[in-house]
DNA sequence: TTTATTTACGTAAACGTTTGCAGCAAATCG
DNA sequence: CGATTTGCTGCAAACGTTTACGTAAATAAA
């Protein structure tokens, strides 16, 4: 079975490779008659251009990379959905890389991508990442990058986020209005700007309503869910006065449910719970969970669109293109007064 | 800023491109001293080989494609997780494509991939796919393919599935033992072999326990969840005798919960429900949902491993390499007697 | 010494595509 | 009618890497 490429098509058509190539790219310097012949044979032979030869020659891969902590998470799954949609429409391919929130892995992935495998990068940084040297290098490699959700403030590029400060404020206020007096905040590693914003919203809402912030009510989660359950259990036992919980990430809200069930704390009678979550089944939980839900699909799509515009123009992405989308608060029974 | 490639390194080191290339690939025909010099400079200049040039020359892309219906679904998200892990360990990259269960899109994606962008393909076919010509073409393009979960029986290659027949049987039997007399089966498009197996398990379990199969109790879901809710509502109203529901896909179980809540049917008192699901929060639903849970991560990882072995040997994948993994049944309150 | 063999490197040809340049007709213009 | 333009096509050089082949020197075998 002989390979079907420009050369084989050219030979069969008795013309040069150049003409075949131009005909297929619909160049204006090829006669309509020739184009017809070329296209007919290409279709008959099921010709598919070699993506790598083209990429090498044009120095364009028509591919974007997506680097995220995990995929088994509704937020990221939905974001990928949006990213894939935008990429597909623009004729781009999507490479997926998972960091599992591991800094070393993130560095290794980014390093590899400097080889020109992707034209641009979408990224949600790992929670353990503190040093951003590996990301700076991308600028030099001329690979534009757009951060989404878990952004990196130190890098000068576009970012797509949600109104995290306001959401943190609203969630906390929602609990206060529901009658909570001692509200705990569960979050993960606080070196993420996103966590800081939510935390600040939480603190400001407390202050605004005359509640004194209490460091003992702030719990930092870890990667492992088992450990989180233990941490939350310990917190609830140590501070029996806690009557409200604001979870900055879905996993911690779920773990809270498990602990409450285990300790016999009733939701919402004893403790009210609200959490960031994209869980479709939130309304079917026992009790239905009040959530702040981020527009994950839109975040992914918007980030991809911004990136693709930059890629097409071969320009770096500008911070000015940053976008802030709004999350929605769904009050359900877990915070019923 | 000059590009850093083999040529620039060679010039700076006063040696030929070939030697630099060989040194970096740790060839035995380069002296240790030279290797040291080359490696040192490569590191200093942050050299990253151009993936496309290498791919073009070696006719190997070190990339696999994953074609799935959707990603916002715990099963597929977990599968991707397993796939990415296996790929990363083997030094492969992962391209993601979503069909959204659309046949046209699936064909278009597969067609594109014949251009050599990927060394192999992992696939879960779209529920609307009936014709498999586009997949046969892959054989000719010498691209091995491994199906997982939603396999295509007509194509002669390796498949990674779960024991769907047994699971369907067990789920049905579980409902029967819990006292159900009129058990409905909710599934999607039945041209998928996977749906047929589960359905057969359901039917055989009914027969084995002296229940007569009733076509009026089998409901075929569609893409849209709103429509599914309507269909299920109609079914429950039309057949008030239904006291058990076996949902072949997670979405249909969730929709069932919504309908029951709406119609005031109590689970499990009035209707017992069991469904295929990888939802982590299944135990936290109201009531906790009994599930058949597939080892999604392992399915993805196993499929990727089989594919990568074939890719490395540049051989087609053999049907004999097929693997069947076992799902687990978790009995929870939704089927309590 | 001569003749193999090994070691270490360079030369150059691929891989398939794109594209600047040139050529060469036919058409248009002065 | 000669000069210039226009429309179409081919030639050949890239893109960066890998690798078969050649070669010169150094070592080993004779």
TrEMBL record, chains A, B:
Gene3D superfamilies: 3.40.50.2300, lambda repressor-like DNA-binding domains
Keywords: DNA-binding, Transcription, Transcription regulation
InterPro entries: HTH_LacI (IPR000843), Lambda_DNA-bd_dom_sf (IPR010982), Peripla_BP/Lac1_sug-bd_dom (IPR001761), Peripla_BP_I (IPR028082)
HTH lacI-type domain residues: 4-58
The keyword Oxidoreductase appears for this protein: no
Record flagged with keyword Ribonucleoprotein: no
Pfam families: LacI, Peripla_BP_1
Protein name from the UniProt record: LacI family transcriptional regulator
Organism: Hymenobacter artigasi
